[in-house]
Amino acid sequence: MLLQVDNLKTYLRAGDRIVKAVDDVSFTLERGEMFCLVGESGSGKSISALSIIQLLPRDIATHPGGKVWFDHRRVDGSIERVDMLALPEEGKRAIRGARIGMIFQEPMTSLNPVFTIGEQIIETLQLHHPELPYSEARARAVAALEQVQIPNSAERIDDYPHRLSGGQRQRVMIAMAMICEPDLLIADEPTTALDVTVQAEILRLMKDLQQRKGTSILFITHDFGVVSEMADRLAVMRQGKIVESGKLRDVLNAPQHDYTRQLLAALPANLARTRPTARRSTPFNAVPATAETPVKPNGEQALVELRGLQVYFPIKKGVFKHTVGHVKAVDQVDMRIPQGQILALVGESGCGKTTLGRAILGLIGATGGEIRFAGDDITGLGRKAMRPYRRHMQIIFQDPVSSLNPRLTVANTLIEPMAVHGIGASKDERMEIARQILVRVQLDPEYLWRYPHEFSGGQRQRIGIARALVLNPRFIVCDEITSALDVSVQAEILQILLDLCRERSLTLLFITHNIGVVEYLADEMAVMHDGKIVERGPTEQVSRNPQHAYTQKLLAAVPRVKF
Amino acid sequence: MSDVLAVNKNATAPGPARRSYSAQMLREVYLKFGARIGLAWIGVLVLVAVFAPFLANSHPLLVSEGGTRHSPLLRALTAADVSLLVILAAVLVLSFLRVAFRYKVLAFTVIALTSSLASYFLISPPQLTIYEQYREAETAGRYDWIVRTPIAYSPKDYQRDAGETGLQAPLSDPARPHLMGTDENGADVLSRMIHASRIALGIGFVATGIALVIGVFIGGLMGYFSGVVDMIGMRLVETFEAVPTLFLLLTFVAFFGANLYMMMVIIGLTGWTGYTRFVRAEFLKLRQQEFVQAAVACGLPLRSILFRHMLPNGIAPILVGASFGVASAILAEATLSFLGLGLVDDPSWGQMLNQAVQAATFNWWMAAFPGGAIFLTVFAYNLIGEAMRDAIDPYLKKTA
How much helix, strand and coil, in percent to the nearest 5, is found in chain B? Predict the structure, then answer.
């Protein structure tokens, strides 16, 4: 047994309150084992890991009870069992980095930008092995980089972190954590900030290293798909306690605790498909009958239509800022979204999907092509000319923190757009509409008088939906609206959204990178890569039988829960 | 659905409930020790400035002359005195009323304008004031009794009747006690100090106010529209930054003579560039925020996007800058007066310092009191500014 955590308690002081972040947690970790801690945000999984490696600030965190037994293998090979909590600071330092390595979530900030990656790796190594000469330390660092599959590692070792991509930085972090060949590696959500294809590579690498080196890994994640690919054993955490633990197969197939069952049921893949498939044939009465509305041969009316849409950002150089080239964020995109349909736009970060969504609403100017809404050309309309269309087209954003004005009450946020567009005759009437819409997104109508900072992420996202709904729009762009949310909250939000679509016959452009959500929600999906749509079709067809090479790669990389 | 609602109710953060961001910020400023001292000093200064005629005046508060009682002081009040009193009363009443902030601002503006216009046209104090008459009448025994203000001298009362030679040290003559001595013309220093606080406060607020309005407006447009507007605006900012304020003031004084209002306007007109840069940077950042994009997507008018959604979120660093700006405006006026280019006869702290330098002997009371007042006031504004900066800076906040 390499690590044995006995009744660990970690209390954090927040102002005058004490938060029991980790409350009586016990688990063990064998040598060479992959153990996953799973839980939603705030469940105490990261705090548990930081308590083990003792990285919590001492003036905030206290350990009123518990032991963290770790088999400390000394340089001479002798093994001593130590309690990490009781060890003096020098003892902890000898173990950190040398015997226990750690990888953090955010690869962009966990490397120091003013040192080359080589310097950072070699420093760790020489700190724990001061007898090593520099040349040998450097050779070992190169070997470590090779091991994490950094191409040309002998040259890349002198690069600064900004020259590496996110995935490469995470590889460097792994190399740095593994350089002293630790017995235990703690990985705190190491792939959450990465794209799925990169995530798949990193996961494969970690699994491979674990098997080759016999390192134990404590893997912290919120994603059951990742757990199902990685874990030998797992523990589910909730509010500082482990509610269930056991072998991967046992927990996934026969969860004992209610919370585990809820979590598994909230996975998009397991959500009950309640939506009627024949929804798109529903007639929509509110469409103003415009004579010139193009009716396609198949009889479906396109609510939003893009023809050769381009959004280019100029790259300017030199003293006179002349344009030397363009970043083609959206490149010749043709798209039709029929009335009442949910189209999912899938792609990895930087592929231009967000830009496309904003360009449709005119928040980013299009450099070429045509955007048609209900048959009218709305490309490049001015503020005034655009206003009548604004109430029919709305957007819901990804980040629940920045998408609401922190200085306005919910009531003000909801009522102002109504007043501008002349919805509701008086303030009281608008208030009543706002109340009804809050109830519709399952919030207490009394929340009208609160400020955004008083709400949780999921509640804010509901307010974001409510803001889009007050104008009674026909088309909503949902820009990664569930990416920042826990899986159970995500399930609730998706349910609300689906119900609303059915009720109001909404047309959605659902931008996401989460394939599970797409399969649950969308009628059609389009895959975007480098500003171009590479494949589109009915969701079932594309996800079951992808034609384009990129789609195949993307779908293969998605970690799925295998029961 | 009801059980979902119940869960959500429980999930609401228990922390500081129902308090807006600005209220929270003000609370945090108020909790700082330095800020409290600063606010206390500014508060004292405001009270002293408003009630200056009732604190230091040669006109008696109340006299009884042959059985009839009258108040020479009230009769001698100027239009400025009256409107300041009305405005202070309005501020106090409005701060206790429970109405929306913008209605308060509106009501305040209306009251301030009407009261100053009304008092300007309605109140005409005697053109010629003879301060000696009350002292002569008193010694002649014409008054049954007399109630004086705490300091019985006006700032321009040179006490020629008493044979005042000027530059009398504090409390040197028990017959005619001057707490802070007299200046070279024989006027009471404390009285001049009290009346000079009006200029110190006025120039700070008005000059900074003018600079703020211009800076926020131009900076807001530059930040929101960016592109060409930003480029033109930036060139304008650079042009104005190249103007040396002090030398411009010197030139104007040389050509048009010393005028307090002109000084305020010039300090304001040359001081807006700093605020413009602040606002522009804030707006450039805010424009990309999703709630601003949402406001655009809702089709809200530009006025609302700029001033309702963006400005309140970007105003905090500007207010911090403004509190330092008030301090530097006070210093600019003091500098001018010290150079002898300020107001001629009216009291001002800088002008008193100038007298201290010009005198043949070193009269400590002429230097220490006005110098100390300038120091304390500038220090107080800096303390407040610093506390505000700490309150809005998320990095300095304890994350525990």
Answer: 70, 5, 30
Q: Which of A393, A405, A451 is opposite residue B313, by nearest beta carbon?
A: A405
Among residues A166, A171, A167, A135, the alpha carbon closest in space to that of A153 is found at: A171
Residue pair A292/A348 in contact (Cβ under 8 Å)? The answer is: no
- Residues A437-483 have pLDDT tens digits of 999 988 988 888 888 888 888 899 999 999 999 999 999 999 988 88
Rounded average pLDDT over A70-82 = 86
Is the distance from CB of A58 to CB of A45 less than 8 angstroms?
A: no
pLDDT at A422 over 80: yes
Question: Structure tokens of B360?
Answer: 């043949």
Give just the sign of the alpha carbon dihedral A27, A33, A39, A42.
positive
What's the mean pLDDT in B80-88? Answer: 89
The C-alpha angle with vertex B111 and arms to B107 and B112, in degrees rounded to 5, equals: 115
The total number of residues shown for chain A amounts to 563
Angle subtended by helix axes A487-504 and A258-266, to nearest 10: 50
In this structure, are residues B331 and B342 in contact, taking their beta carbons and an 8 Å threshold?
no
Q: Are A502 and A279 in contact (CB under 8 A)?
A: yes
Number of inter-chain CB pairs under 8 A, A vs B: 99
Could you read off the pLDDT of A502-546 as tens digits, one per residue? 888 899 999 998 888 888 888 899 999 988 999 999 988 998 889
A3-14 and A17-29: which strand pairing? antiparallel
CB contact under 8 A, A403 and B290: yes
**Beta-sheet pairing, B68-70 with B62-65:** antiparallel
Q: ipTM of the assembly?
A: 0.78
Across the range B204-226, mean pLDDT stands at 90
- Is the pLDDT assigned to residue B14 strictly greater than 60? no
Measured distance CA(A361)–CA(A393) in Å, rounded: 7
Report whether pLDDT(B3) > 50.
no
Asked if residues B54 and B72 have their Cβ atoms less than 8 Å apart, the reply is no
Q: Which residues of A touch B304 (CB under 8 A)?
A: 416, 420
Dist. CA A348–CA A194, nearest whole Å: 9
A407 and B18 within 8 Å at the Cβ level: the answer is no
**Does the pLDDT of residue B40 top 90, yes or no?**
yes
Q: Do residues A284 and A322 touch, judged by C-beta distance below 8 A?
A: no
Collapsing DSSP to helix, strand or coil, B65 comes out as strand
Q: What pLDDT is stored for residue A143 in this prediction? A: 92
Q: B299 vs A444: CB contact, 8 Å cut-off?
A: no
User: Residue B69, Cβ neighbours under 10 Å: how many?
Assistant: 11
* A33 half-sphere exposure, CB direction, 13 A CA radius: 18
The reported pTM is 0.77
Nearby residues of A544 by Cβ (< 8 Å), 6 or more positions away: none
pLDDT, residue A343, reads 93
For residue B309, the chain A residue with the least C-alpha distance is: A405
Q: Kindly state the helix (H) or strand (E) to which residue A377 belongs, with its residue range.
A: strand A376-377
Please name which of B295, B294, B289, B286 lies closest in space to residue A477, comparing C-alpha atoms. B294
Buried/exposed code over B340-364 (b: 16+ C-beta within 10 A; e: otherwise)? ebbbeebbbbbbbbbbbeeeeeebe
